[in-house]
Amino acid sequence: MRSLELRMHLPVATVPESGVRCALLAPRLSLASCVRGHIVRSTAGLALGPEQRYNHFPASPLCAICWLFQGGATVVQRGDQAICEVTPRISLIGPHSVPVVSHNPGPVEALMVALTPAAVEALSGVPVSSLVNRVVPLEEVFGAAWGTMAQEVLRATDDARRIALFEDFLEPRWELVRDGTVLRADRFHYWVENLALRAAQSGVGVGMRQMERRIKQWAGQPLRDLRRMERAEETFFRAMASHQRGSLDWAEMAVDCGYADQAHLCRDVRRNTGHSPTDLLAAIEQEESFWMYRLRDQ
């Protein structure tokens, strides 16, 4: 009930006809096991209403480095909790076990680089478990060299240059630690399964509880939650494809994606996004603030 009350206070926003620049860009191949993607978004020069400046994000095991080149952002809801946390201009976003809503008070131009938790821990030396459900200044996690790079990216004037600066900086550093991390592939599914395999092989006679503790230490969240997010991601893309073909059947989708029944699917979708499946699809089609769900690889 508390979650419903909070959502009722967030205004409904329609999707603007055109003008918003928003894209998901793939990283260079050498960084595919570290970077899941670059997200660029700009509402500069657009006459959007306040209700169109909200941003809805699902629960996610990923981390992200975020630059705000223009404008600002404030986290206004995390899970069921109404909050007011101003986002630093250059920040590290930790894994989130609950959906999040943020608000831009005016036009914004931003870049988010989505990183695997294992990569963040390997590159920074900071346990990712300490970053769950947090947004912190980048310099609290990474060293001075990262801060210098981040300022160079902040001064760059176009997306291609910004991404190139970041990837040129990251590539040699990732090469040094890549073989010592769990990630060998760029797909979330293989990463989750690799976590379980690594935990099982990390000692003779390892019990289930000890395995779960190790996985939570490495990823910041329990294996069951990671697998729930993995299944939700797969279900989301399959549901969107079926919806666009006009053949979406939620009961059938639940069975095909490994849920006990449709109610089980609905509970997981609400837990990851804060919305029922039907409401989520409608919001993706009709509300600007759900732009994150409309992103596709480019």
Automatic annotation (TrEMBL):
Q: Could you state a single Gene Ontology molecular function term?
A: DNA-binding transcription factor activity
Taxonomic superkingdom: Bacteria
- Signal sequence: where? none
Mention any Pfam family matching this sequence.
HTH_18
Q: By its UniProt entry, which SMART domains does this protein fall under?
A: HTH_ARAC
Q: Where is the HTH araC/xylS-type domain?
A: 193-283
Protein known as = AraC family transcriptional regulator
Source organism per entry reads Simplicispira hankyongi
Organismal lineage: Bacteria, Pseudomonadati, Pseudomonadota, Betaproteobacteria, Burkholderiales
